Amino acid sequence: MKMNTFYIHTMGCQMNEYDSDFLAQALVRMGYAPTRDPNEASVILINTCMVRAKAEQKAMSALGRYSRIKKRRPHIVLGVVGCLAQKKGHLLLDRFPQVDMVLGPRETGRIAEAVSAVMKNRERTLAISLETLPPAPSFTTDYFKGRVTGCISIMQGCNNFCAYCIVPYVRGREVSRPPGDILAEAGRLVSQGVREITLLGQNVNSYRWKGEGGVKDFTGLLEEMDRLDGLLRLRFTTSHPKDLSDRLIECFGRLKILCPHIHLPFQAGSDRILAAMKRDYTRDQYMRLVEKLRRVRPDVAVTSDVMVGFPGETREDFLLTLDLMERVQFDSLFSFKYSDRSGTLAEKLEGKVDESEKDRRLRRLQELQRSITLKKNEALKDRVTEVLVEGFSKKGGQLSGRTGTNKIVNFDGPPEWIGRVVNVRITAAFVNSLRGVASCEQAA
Ligand code: SAH
Ligand code: SF4
Ligand code: F3S
């Protein structure tokens, strides 16, 4: 008999990837098997993002594509989940008769019920409450087998309301998960072979749990994770500069499995723009944080997010962004053109920057960062560095893994090394990766 299968198309950030794993495990428990071909799937889910206009367009065109499959195969289930689902809600059901369910990011716990409702009576579901919390995932025994790295969401939502950002509107207010649930989830990932865990939240520094055992903040959670048997590496993302405490910075010098890497979005290098963005720190404060981090952990890699063309950004403001980049020397950078999001504060601001000017600024910024990244990567040549092997390189043929500083390294070696930390001497540096050879002296 042909098995029932599901296909999940995931867009957006690691939060969505985490949610897709949650949804996939729920479907596996219902007896569905994953498939790589949406044309043969009995359930198709689109996990959407809408952080920028382009992400929203991508989600809408995917929806068009999968709706056409559904027209040909009307018996299947088509669901829209994630941030666009949250924002557009019933509009999606109205405009797309092919869509059977719309679940917001906090309503993933209702997937089984929603799929059954379609299967039984072709009943449609709209679930977009921001008051709900997804339950802890019930683990299927071997879902994560074969994966070396994994993520755990430690909190939902965001309270910061940066002027440009839609996330607080589609993910709701901050709610931290109980530390016991997080540690149990970590233990189950490790028991399936995961060796590196990234703790996820929009602003992990404001993690705070008050329960029977007292109050636990983010550093308290990191300390407990550091004691987990079998876990080799720990990371977290994202931290907000305004809440990056000295206690958290000190963890980089103290916790044995915490990787020397921090993703610390700065967004802009001009104090005027930072204030308009409501980021609540100045360029000097940001640079002081990076200095502190480097004092505690000299090899720490600092990566960041930045945008060009926020409303009112002048040429001088933009040059301050480039200046900050020159001073800080980020290991790598995600850079974006500002994009209006409906309902945000920035949408209503005056002084919108021309698309073509945004393009020019972005190109110039990316050129500068490319040269900085390359210079930093080239400085690693001839050095021996520990690489956690994650699998095979994109082009195939080689092993691929990452340094503690989160740089990709490709090198030759046997597949048995996947999941192990290997000492690699770096022989060539590129913008997006490094090449190396396994060094004779291997780590345990
Ligand atoms: N919580 C994370 C960021 C989540 S969104 C944080 O605070 O760092 C990821 C990145 O998308 C942001 O850091 C920002 O650089 C970018 N971004 C968010 N809204 C945007 C918008 N309206 N236009 C362009 N870029 C945006
Ligand atoms: Fe958006 Fe700011 Fe919250 Fe990050 S901290 S998710 S940029 S509102
Ligand atoms: Fe996108 Fe939602 Fe993440 S808008 S960036 S998927 S939190």
Structure description:
The chain has helices spanning 14-29, 53-72, 83-88, 90-95, 111-121, 167-171, 179-191, 218-226, 246-254, 271-277, 283-296, 315-328, 355-378, and strands at 5-10, 33-34, 43-48, 77-82, 101-103, 125-127, 149-153, 155-156, 175-176, 196-200, 208-211, 214-217, 233-237, 261-263, 301-308, 332-337, 384-392, 399-403, 408-411, 421-429, 434-438. A 6-stranded parallel β-sheet has the order 2-1-3-4-5-6, sandwiched between helices. A 5-stranded mixed beta barrel has the order 17-18-19-21-20. Helix content is 35%, strand content 23%. It binds S-adenosyl-L-homocysteine (SAH), iron/sulfur cluster (SF4) and FE3-S4 cluster. FE3-S4 cluster is lined by residues 12-13, 15-16, 49-51, 82-83, 166-167, 170-171. Iron/sulfur cluster binds at residues 158, 160-162, 165, 167-168, 202-203, 240.
Task: Give a topology summary.
Blueprint: E1 5-10, H1 14-29, E2 33-34, E3 43-48, H2 53-72, E4 77-82, H3 83-88, H4 90-95, E5 101-103, H5 111-121, E6 125-127, E7 149-153, E8 155-156, H6 167-171, E9 175-176, H7 179-191, E10 196-200, E11 208-211, E12 214-217, H8 218-226, E13 233-237, H9 246-254, E14 261-263, H10 271-277, H11 283-296, E15 301-308, H12 315-328, E16 332-337, H13 355-378, E17 384-392, E18 399-403, E19 408-411, E20 421-429, E21 434-438
Parallel strand pairs: 1-2, 1-3, 3-4, 4-5, 5-6, 7-10, 10-13, 14-15, 15-16, 19-21
Antiparallel strand pairs: 8-9, 11-12, 17-18, 17-20, 18-19, 20-21
The chain binds S-adenosyl-L-homocysteine (SAH), iron/sulfur cluster (SF4) and FE3-S4 cluster.
Residues 51-52, 164-165, 167, 202-203, 238, 240, 265, 267, 305, 307, 336, 338-339, 341 line the site of S-adenosyl-L-homocysteine.
